[in-house]
Amino acid sequence: MRKFIFTGFLAAALVAPALAQAPLPPVPAPQNVPKPGPVTKGPYAPQTLLPGGIVMPLFPAGSPYLNAKRVSEAEVYTMDPVVPGRVQRIVNIHNPSIEVHLAGGGNNTGTAIILAPGGGHSTLVVGLEGADPVPYFFQYGINTIILRNRLRSSGYEPKTDGVYDIQQAIRLVRVHAAEWHIDPRKIGVMGFSAGAELTMASAIQYPEFNAKNTAPSDPLAGFSARPDFVGAIYPGPSLFTPAWTTKNGTPPIPKDTPPSFIAGAGWQDKIHAVWADEYFSAMLNAGIPNVEMHIYARGGHGNGLAYREFTAEGTWQDRFVHWLRDLGFFQKPGVETLAAQDVAEFVKQPAAKP
Q1: Is the domain covering 39-348 a CATH 2.40.50.100 domain?
Q2: Strand spans (E) along the chain
Q3: pTM score
Q4: Residues near 128 by beta carbon (within 8 Å), at least 6 away in sequence
Q5: What does the domain layout of the chain look like in residue ranges?
Q6: Higher pLDDT, 17 or 183
């Protein structure tokens, strides 16, 4: 009986009124819809995707890291066909940038996460894996930074140009940490799929980037590109995947390599689970502290924070928050994390004998 009453009510609500009525007023157009910036003679100025974002190019005009012939080209947006104002993807990125979203003053942990969206290096999925996580992490007092890195589809090499972009992003956030109320020792990275390739590389390649960016003319000289933690969500191949490295799958792992959190699905996303395991095994065998991995039995690829029909994989972000809390990243700014203490203790240990 209850089902009949509900069904009848729903049907009645959907039936057009029998009596003539005045027409409804039109639905207003969406307000403040993001759009690419104009093309000028100077470097392209990236535009904010979410209200209140602080957008900064990674490299100064004239930097040798940039393609001078294309740096003025505008980014190209793909908009969500259902959600007005939501940018789904971006391509044609020649002036890479960060978009900073700060945590609330009373809830700020000082922790910052640089988000590296995926997209197979052909597009940047800035909606699902960039903008969408911002409010989620805000509720935990975490500052978020959306990375717009250069893509293979625009003529760049992810293993160099893309990695340089995320390394420069870490340095740029660190140099502005004081004015943004970010703890310079609590700056981490989180990548999704192709973006995770960049975060996993940043975990071990920061010494080289630091060493070649020490010129007195560089305003970021002296600020390290080492992330304080690394997230790799349904990751692509890492430098420990033999086919993706020139060193037979064994690149050097610094003793102060930061802790990593890895998550993905197994059976239904097998290749990414294999790549995740290669990175995890390398870190585990090297003895790097506080490396955690979750490979769920069921799940899919490329769903960001979506709960995936309530499969267990849809809770990976909860596990990540627990991991951050366990390692001390939810303490007030200025308090040394347990992660940092464990890294310092590990560095003091004698090198393992071959």
Answers
A1: no
A2: 54-57, 76-79, 87-91, 97-101, 112-116, 143-148, 187-192, 230-233, 260-265, 292-296
A3: 0.92
A4: 88, 117, 302, 303, 304, 306
A5: 39-348
A6: 183
